[in-house]
Amino acid sequence: MPSPASGRVEAVLYSEEERQRRDASPWTIVQGVLAPLQFLVFIVSTLLVWRFFATGEGATIASASVVLKTALLYAIMITGSIWERDVFGQYLFARPFFWEDVVSMLVMALHTAYLVCFFGGYLNVSDQLVLALVAYFTYVVNAAQFLIKFRMARVTAAEGRV
Asked: Domain span at residue 91?
């Protein structure tokens, strides 16, 4: 839709039908609960991992927190792909969330690598937790992508552009 001030075509995140499907999907609420829960676990886990690096103590709780964070990541990815199918008709890589899903795959790969190392006994605890921090960095990038899209959806809805 052209912007009156700029003459540019501005991206609309949802068509009217997609917005209605989004609002009707029970997975929208699930995502709304899981996302902040995962972020809270991420914050606590990050503090526990940094505490381990600062003091050399708490490796078990730090590692357990990364496993919990990863479990929540899997839950949000699975339910998010179901949400994406409900709204856009495909499980991943729908037009409005293509790049978010691409980065999500990297986030998933790094978190999965952590689980493989943790449960398989690969790498020492310090190296495993460094891997976790790398995974967490990609998670922060991905979360920022989704927050930008969430903000864009709110702004376009407030402007009446769906």
From this structure: 24-157
DSSP string across 132-160? HHHHHHHHHHHHHHHHHHHHHHHHHHHTT
Q: Residue 131 and residue 34: Cα distance in Å, rounded? A: 23
Phi, psi of 14 (to 5 degrees): -125, 140
122-149 residue pLDDT tens: 999 999 999 999 999 999 999 999 888 8
In a domain, 16, yes or no: no
Q: Is residue 2 part of a domain?
A: no
**Residue 1 located in a structural domain:** no
> pTM of the predicted model, to two decimals?
0.84
Domain count, the chain: 1
At 155, list the tokens: 């702004």
Residue 85 within any structural domain of the chain: yes
Instruction: Tell the residue number behind the tokens 């729908």, with chain if given.
Output: 94
Q: Which two tokens stand for residue 145?
A: 């992508």
Q: What is the pLDDT of residues 45-57, one digit of tens each?
A: 999 999 999 999 9
- Of 27, 43, 2, 36, the closest CA to residue 85 belongs to 27
Q: What is the dihedral of CA 86, 157, 107, 75, to 10 degrees?
A: -40
